[in-house]
Amino acid sequence: MIRLGVIFGGKSVEHEVSIITAVQAMNKIDSNKYEIIPIYVTKELEFYTGYPLREIDNYKDLSLLKRNTKKVQIVRINNQVYLQTLGWFKRLIKEVDVIFPIGHGSYLEDGSLQGMVKMLDIPCVSSDQLASAIGQDKVVQKLMYKASNIPTSNFVWFYDFEFIDNKESILEQIKKLNYPVIVKPATLGSSVGIKVVKSEEEIVDAINQAIEYDKKIIVEEVIKNLKEVNISILGSQENFELSVIEEVGSKNDFLTYEDKYINGSKSRKGMANSSRIIPANINEKLANDVRTIAKEVYKVIGLSGVVRLDFLIDENKEKVYMNEVNTIPGSLSFYLWDKTNKTYTEELDEMISTSIREYKKESKKIRTFKTNILEGFSGLKGLKGIKK
Questions:
Q1: Which member of 20, 209, 270, 380 has the lowest number of beta carbons within 10 Å of its beta carbon?
Q2: How many C-beta neighbours within 10 Å does residue 256 have?
């Protein structure tokens, strides 16, 4: 049986969303094939493990939850990864074969955890650290889209200190986009800190609000006659498939945090709780454009696992714009794969199997040399030979 460490939580404004997504997934992973090992990361970046972490109601009282679970660290000893207790008398309590990050935002989705798992040298059920970092940064994404001739909305971006030092210049650049515009923190998700600004009088307050969350800010033009659609991709660069396309609905100017995760419901179903039309009410030409652009984005960023790509459509112009990619989407987009007759359990199994297969392929690449060029090294004089 494969020992699967599911990591979730983290120091992020999307902490609670991550818990919902992870608990959903853990309850759907095939327990006949995988030993599910929950690894909860607190907002203080402490690691806990234990069966109580699999029950959503236990998160109502975090102090009690911590008392009923074990505080651990992740270590690699003798070519095996373990969960180890802390303190003077450390114990190895669980072996882990595969890491499955189910976190949203900072630390767990932005490439930080993926880099740590790379150092542990075991399979990771997500995009790699570079693709994850790109997926978390809306500015880098937009710059890549522009460089790759992938259609995306016009934008202006800047750092918080630049806005303080060159406010008038930046406001002039934003003015050229034409109002209304949408202001976003560059590296957050779940629509946190985002605001649609309809006039010049509101822009400074919106930017200052975004700066409270992030040091990098992006301001985008608002697409007219807007319809928002999403699609999910599952697999690897060598072999992947596309889900159905969904149309997302909102009574607001954009899909808000409340639309995505609350929406007047207490069911705690995460993104599956949002208002949506599946399949999207768009013609085949637009649907083909979405699929074509999605494949190109998947390739350009180097994504893997399951991702969700969000698009903006100007219905009057029948033009599709790439908005952003989510490398660990809310609810892992199971509601899109369910419409292709793929159960959530089957989706999760494919994700895990793909990560193991890709890890084995990667392990065959040359990453180090057996020879040691420092043998016989004799101080600085030895550097001359290295330079040659």
A1: 380
A2: 18
**Cβ 117 vs Cβ 105: under 8 Å:** no
Tell me the three state secondary structure of residue 157: strand
H helices within the chain, ranges in order? 15-26, 62-67, 112-120, 129-136, 138-147, 160-165, 167-175, 203-211, 257-261, 284-301, 334-337, 344-363, 382-387
Q: Final residue of a domain: which of 79, 103, 124?
A: 124
Final residue of a domain: which of 201, 221, 241? 221
Region 43-59 average pLDDT: 97
pLDDT tops 60 at residue 346: yes
The tokens for 46 are 């402490």
CATH number for the domain harbouring residue 279: 3.30.470.20
Q: Categorize the per-residue pLDDT at 105 as very low, low, confident or very high, splitting at 50, 70 and 90.
A: confident
Query: Measured over all CA atoms, what is the biggest interatomic distance in the chain, rounded to whole angstroms?
Result: 72
| Domain span including residue 12 | 2-124
In whole angstroms, give the CA distance from residue 209 to residue 264: 25
